[in-house]
Amino acid sequence: MSRKEEKFYLIRADILPESIAKTIEAKKLLESGEVDTVNDAVDSVGLSRSAFYKYKDAIFPFNAMMSEEIMTVSFTLDHRSGVLSRVLQFVAENGGNVLTINQTIPLQGIANVAMSVDMVHMQMSGTEFLDVLQELKGVRKAMIVGRG
Question: Which residue of 3, 60, 82, 139 is surrounded by the most CB atoms within 10 Å?
Answer without folding.
Answer: 139
